[in-house]
Write a structure and sequence with these properties.
By secondary structure, the protein is α/β, with parallel strands linked by helices. It has two domains: about 170 residues, Isopropylmalate Dehydrogenase (3-Layer(aba) Sandwich); about 130 residues, 3-Layer(aba) Sandwich (Isopropylmalate Dehydrogenase). It has 14 helices and eleven strands. It has an eleven-stranded mixed β-sheet with strand order 3-2-1-4-11-10-5-6-9-7-8, sandwiched between helices. Strand 1, helix 3 and strand 2 form a beta-alpha-beta unit.
Length: about 400
Amino acid sequence: MSDRAARRYTSPHEVTAAWSAVADDRRVRVAVDAAGGDNAPEAVVEGALAVAAPSLTVVLVGDEARLRPLVAGAPHVEIVHAADVIGSGDEPASAARHKTGSSMVVGAKLVADGAADAFVGAGNTGAMLACALLYIRRQRGVQRPAICTIMPAAPSPIAFLDVGANADVRPDHLRQFALMGQIFARELMGIERPRVGLLSIGEEPTKGSQLVLEAHKLIAADERIDFYGNVEGRDIMNRVVDVVVSDGFTGNVALKSLEGTAKAVLKALRAAIDHSVVTRLGALALRSELLRVRAALDPEEYGGAFLVGMSAPVVIAHGSSGARGIANAIRQGRRGVVTSLLPTIAAELAGEREAAAGAAAREAAAGAEAGEASADGAAARSEAGRAAPDATPGTPS
C-alpha cells in the first residue's frame, strides 16, 4: 500500500458499523435518558428506533406522555416513565442524590437493578458521572473511572482518556487509565496491539509536571502496558499512538481545543470552496474525499464517550447529539456489553489487588518481626542492666 493510501482518513462509520456487526447472540437492553440533550426527546427517539432490533432492546426513560406518540408502537423499544429531569444548571452530585424521579437517575437505577445492561445519556455530563458513581458503581479495584473518547486521527481513530472526569489525579491513577485505555482500544475499537502514550510538553521522559514525571515511571514499569512514552499535543491527531492518557483537566482542554480547531478548519475550507466558480469545480472533483474528511471529524459518528471503570457500560453522548449520534452511542453501549471489555479490566485489576494484598501482608509481617526483634533487644538490654552491678568489681578503698 502506498503512503498516500495509508494516510487516508478511515471513516468513523466504518468503526461504528463494526459495532453493529459484533457476532453475539445475546439480547442486550440499553437504557437511554430520553430527556437528556439539546434535541431531546425527538432526536433520542429517532436514534433509538434506528438501532432497535431483536438483539437490542432500547429502554427509553422519560415522560411517557411525550414519548408514546413518538415511539408509535415500534418493536424492541420500551418506555419507563420518569417525570423529572436533571437540567444543565443543576448541581450534579446534589441532583443525583435528590432528584430520584429524574430520567437520569431512573435510567441508572435500571442498570443497577439488572433491568438494563448499559446506560446512555446526552444530558448534564457531571450528573451522568455522579449517577454512574452513586448507582452503577465502579468495578472492584478501579481507583477512578475515566471518560474515554474516540478521537479522529489520520489514518484511523484513537482512544483518548481522561477527558473530563478527574481534574486532579495521582500518578497511579494515570497508570490505571493507561491500562484501562489499552483494554478499551483492543476490546471495543478492535486494535490488536494498542500502544499507549502519556500526554506531556515534550517527548523526553524528563519533561513534564511532577505528576507526569512520576506517572511516566509507573506506566513504564507496568509490563502489561505497551508504553510508547510521552506524546505532545500535536501528536494526538497524527496517530503516533493508539491511546493517549492525560488527567481530566488537561484532556478536556485538549479535546475542546481540537474540536474548535476542526470546526475552524472546516469553516475556512468551505469559505475557500465558495470563493469562485473555479474553486467550486475543484471541490466537486474532490467531493468524495472532502466528505470523508468531514465525516472523520464529526463527533456524531462516534456517538459519545465511554466511562471506563464502571461495573456496566455507561456512554456519555454529546449534548448536541442528533439522531445519528444517539444511535451510535447506543451501539457503543451494546458493544461494551458483548465484548470482553469489562471482564478483562476486572481480571487485570484482580491481579493488582492480589499483588497489593501480598505486599501489605509482607509489610505487616516484616513490621511484626521488627517489633519482636526490638522487644527481644530491649529485654536483653534490661537483663544485662540488672546483672551489671553483680559483675562489676568493687572499687578500692
